[in-house]
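for the record, two folds in this file. i put them one after another cuz i was lazy. first one right below, seq on top, structure tokens after. the second one comes after a little note so u can tell where it starts
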Amino acid sequence: MKSSRFERNVVLLGSSGVGKTSIVTKYTSGIFDSMSSHATVGVSFTAQTFMVNNIMFTMNIWDTAGQERYKSLASIYFKDKDAIIIIFSLDAKSTFSDINEWHSELKKYYAKFPPILIVGNKADIEECSFEVDSKTAAKFAESIGANYLEVSAKTGQNIEKLFNDVASALINSSEVQDAEQHEKMIKLTDFSDENKQKCC
């Protein structure tokens, strides 16, 4: 790894009302506003710098609107991102079903997916109120090559872990890419040396 500083772009996707903005606000300011019901219009942006694995990491977070009329706009912002977080509400099965639509949309823009994390929000509510059970969500996440985590924007449960996990995944991905690039360079050097010997 060449540098101990990282800056990466992360986008949050999900249906309207699942708590995307509440999760970001809880993470960046520690605040949960139970009275706020304002949906994101278009997209909002915030940047957060923190330490993870002894590395200074700056995460640029793009919070997209989930309303149907803004979905085409959201696609503009989830292109070319380094990681994708898709959020649903544990007490609303329809928002979990919508993940399929988001995932299908992503396929249009990524030949190879960046790290994806499926997040079930409102983990603080009574489990009997869950419309999506944890095993089903985790199994679905695994089926699309994503990780799964349950959080609560209200209590802060797993909020810091969410963004630390994303940062760690991005750092690991970068290290793998560096190693692969280094290996390619070695192979090219070996090939060049071999050709030189043949020419002699």
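(here's the note) second protein begins now
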Amino acid sequence: MFEDLKNAMTQEFKMTDIGLMSYYLGIEVKQSEEGIFISQERYTREILEKFNMMNSKPVATPIETGTKLSKHEEGDDVDPSYFKSLVGSLRYLTCTRPDILFSVGLVSRFMESPTTTHLKVTKRILRYLKGTLDYRLFYSSSKEFKLEGYCDRLGWRY
């Protein structure tokens, strides 16, 4: 079926088959019989370089347990443009890194008037990424489709 569509499209439009997708919008794609791996390792390295964190010491978690932030945190004000650029870069990275989604969502609340405390928490996310550059999402290929949802708070499975 796919080959028929591809042949029809090739006849109708000027196009070339360049094979399996390997890179798209900063997302690296590796396809195999078992499934598809996606990652943003190159983009993560670019972020670490842009914000001078390539030589930082990695940490095991993206945010410390019990971290609570507010608009009126102690510390000097940080350039909002710099902070927005950093948080925006991290938000795009969450497409393939759901492990940082909560912490990026937390710091993104303070883009209007960030302080050094907010920046410190955000840079911890970068330090976590430094130690987890090789993390990828895997979508297994299967003939059997099963959609499953889980709510951690209630312990319900759908």
